[in-house]
Amino acid sequence: MTQPHEPRPENRFIATLSPEEAAALRPLLRRVEVTFDQIVVDQGAPITEVHFPIDAQFANLIRFPDGSAVETAVVGHEGLTGLAPFMANRPSSWEIVCRATGTAWVASASALRALALERPRLMNRLLILTDLYQAQAALNGACNALHPIPDRIARWLLTAWDLSPHESLAFRQEELARLIGTRRSTISEAASELKRRKLIAYGRGVIRITDRAGLEAAACDCYRMLRPRMDAVLGVDGQA
After folding, report:
1. What is the pTM of this model?
2. Residue 49 in this model has a pLDDT that exceeds 90
3. What are phi and psi of 51, to 5 degrees?
4. Hey, what domains does the chain have and what are their CATH numbers?
């Protein structure tokens, strides 16, 4: 099921559209550069634009009144930002922030929504992606309640790697702590164990997977449960 990870400098959602749907979408798109920690949607704000990451990545953050924040998802070249509130034409319940500097296509939300209503095949692809994101959210809740921290770290690293065209990942320990829902010191200990087992290498906020098969074996079952839905979105094995 897993494929060799080679650079793919394009948004995979767009790449797996039919030629007709891609041609209809292209006039709505403009290419932009996004930088680390750039907020593209404020929590509680309407979705006026959506980003289709190329080599950038975004994170969904829930911010609480006391100033704390929890990172709930990573969005990469598999799809687009703010999909659920965009589809519902509702304000976003979370903040969307760039977590890895790079490029993305951006489109007007209203124009894309109108195009999807005109084109059932495009709407179907958006609904398939919505299903993936809903499945991720459900699994994340169950995973955080049941699985050990090292297994969860392995799952997040594999997922982030799948959503990036790069061979290394920009991940700070503070961000992993927000994703896992634990202290930074706990993340440091667990990451050091994965490094000791030669599954990953890291330094200066950059993580590289050195043993993909070993890291998959170390990850919790959530990764393997979600992977078929991810493959359907990415067009792996002809499932698109």
Report:
1. 0.84
2. yes
3. -110, 130
4. 12-238 (2.60.120.10)
